[in-house]
Amino acid sequence: MSEVELTLHGKLQHLKERSGLSLRAIAREMGYSQASSIQRYFSADYAEPVLPANFISKLLAVLPGKGTPPITREDVLALADGTVAEIQRKAPSLPGTGVPIVGEVAAGLWMEAALFETEKAEESTISYDVRFPTQSQYVVRVRGESLNKIAANGDLLLCVDYLSAGIEPKENDLVLVERSRDDGMTIERTAKRVIRMNGQSELMPESTDPRFQDTIVFREGDFDHTEVTIKARIVMVFKPL
């Protein structure tokens, strides 16, 4: 371990780089609108030997589980001032109800856009993922065999909206994708795996069913492909009993 990694700044920078998140993305996941709100803690000029408990409590909802190898709670707590109990006490509370189920994912099923907009949310017993803002999380139900390598018909997928969570799609993410046609009047909601090839993102199927083997090419900034939208990262699969 190098000398800079032994400093507070070095350790925090190392965790940031390991997470793959930008400073702005970390700030937004912590509940701030601007990176400047937390920039001083990431500066080499920050003079304190440890980070304050209230900052660590919010960081605990962002970094653990990210990166390779995944960042642990202990990695974050190593930067803290005060006791673990104090940090836990200052941690933001989660809603008392489960993450809402807001619809289905079913490749090949095109529906009127108005039906997506009027879908009624169902209550679930699935807990929120503390790594992400609660308002960015929702659950969808799998219909059919379009994701059968990962999830079976009827399974539930916990999703995190990329835009509202302030995170970016990364290679190997399992993602929720919406495709539109007829000038946006009809929509298909499906799930794919992000693979980077030849400088562009390809959305690959996770199914053994021959009906669902199409690959979607997604080029950022290519307005000829605006009918394809990567909506959310799928972070967990739940199999109802």
Strand and helix map with partners:
Elements (H helix, E strand, L loop, with lengths): L2 H4 L1 H12 L3 H7 L23 H7 L13 H5 L6 H7 L10 E5 L4 E3 H5 L19 E6 L13 E6 H4 L8 E8 L4 E12 L2 E5 L11 E3 L9 E11 L3
Parallel strand pairs: 1-3
Antiparallel strand pairs: 2-6, 3-4, 4-9, 5-6, 5-9, 6-7, 7-8
Helix pairs in contact: 4-6
What is the number of helices?
A: 8
How confident overall, as mean pLDDT? 79
* Bulk shape: elongated
Task: Please give the share of residues in helix.
Answer: 10-25%
Low-confidence stretches: 1-5, 221-226
Major sheet description: 9 strands, mixed
* The CATH homology group name of the largest domain: Umud Fragment, subunit A
Order of secondary-structure elements: HHHHHHEEHEEHEEEEE
Instruction: Give the termini distance in whole angstroms.
Output: 47 Å
Structural Rg: 20 Å
User: Number of folding domains?
Assistant: 2
How many runs of DSSP E, i.e. beta strands? 9
Architecture overview:
The N and C termini lie far apart (47 Å). Helix content is 21%, strand content 24%. Strands 1, 2, 3, 4, 5, 6, 7, 8 and 9 form a 9-stranded mixed β-sheet that branches. The protein has helices spanning 3-6, 8-19, 23-29, 53-59, 73-77, 84-90, 113-117, 162-165; strands spanning 101-105, 110-112, 137-142, 156-161, 174-181, 186-197, 200-204, 216-218, 228-238. With 241 residues, it is an alpha+beta fold. It has 2 domains: 3-90, no CATH class; 101-238, Umud Fragment, subunit A (Ribbon).
